[in-house]
Amino acid sequence: MYFIARSTKAWVVTLVAALLAACASTTVTLTPSPQTPVCERSANALVLWMPLWRLDQKDVAAREAAAAAGLNSFFANSDCFARTELRRVSSLNPVTTAEQSAQGGPFDTVVTITVRELGPVVKLLSSASLVEGGTEVILQVTARSVDSSGAAREFNVHWRNGGPGVVKGVASLPSDISATLRSGLQPD
Fold it and tell me: How many domains does the chain have?
């Protein structure tokens, strides 16, 4: 009986230590930094987006669905712009962007978003906790005023959430991309 109680206590202590070690943290890097907010509550915006996955990317359809859900959620709930029209496109070259911005009504701003990374990350044996993981989102963003002849500004947003002992799946990806957009586009 003493042996069972002692081993149970050791197991509980080990579990509590593992849970304390599995604290996630979030880091966001804007390149170049700093960036002024893209969001402008009085503007009408056309947001064009597309994924640009790695050649060895797994679960492309699920990641694209998560990206679409996260983008829709952010622009529906953030008050980033007065009105936002979100379109998934197959190319973000300047000709396509100009053609898209001419369709669908008057826009003040055109924002393009290339989703370069969206997914869970797991590293084995990389630290004392044996497992280090989380999720990672990398977006390339361009923004320009429709009535401006100036060049569009372009920057990258690299968002990570995780840490030692953290293992995350794909369920959080829509909220992860929304959090990345909040950090990068900086709504009020």
Answer: 1
Q: Is residue 12 part of a domain?
A: no
Per-residue pLDDT, 23: 74
* Strand bridging mode 131-145 / 153-164: antiparallel
The C-alpha angle 51, 54, 57, rounded to 5 degrees, equals 95
Residue 70's contacts (CB-CB under 8 Å, 6 or more residues apart) are 173, 174, 175, 176, 177, 178, 181
β-pair partners for 137 = 118, 159
Nearest Cα to Cα of residue 98 among 169, 146, 33: 146
Query: Are 97 and 50 in contact, with CB atoms under 8 Å apart?
Result: no
158 token code pair: 């690299």
CATH number of the domain enclosing 167? 3.40.50
- Kindly tell me if the per-residue pLDDT of 130 is higher than 80: no
Residue, of 91 and 132, whose pLDDT is higher: 91
Q: What angle do CA 30, 31, 37 make, to 5 degrees?
A: 50
- Number of helices and strands in the chain (H, E): 4, 6
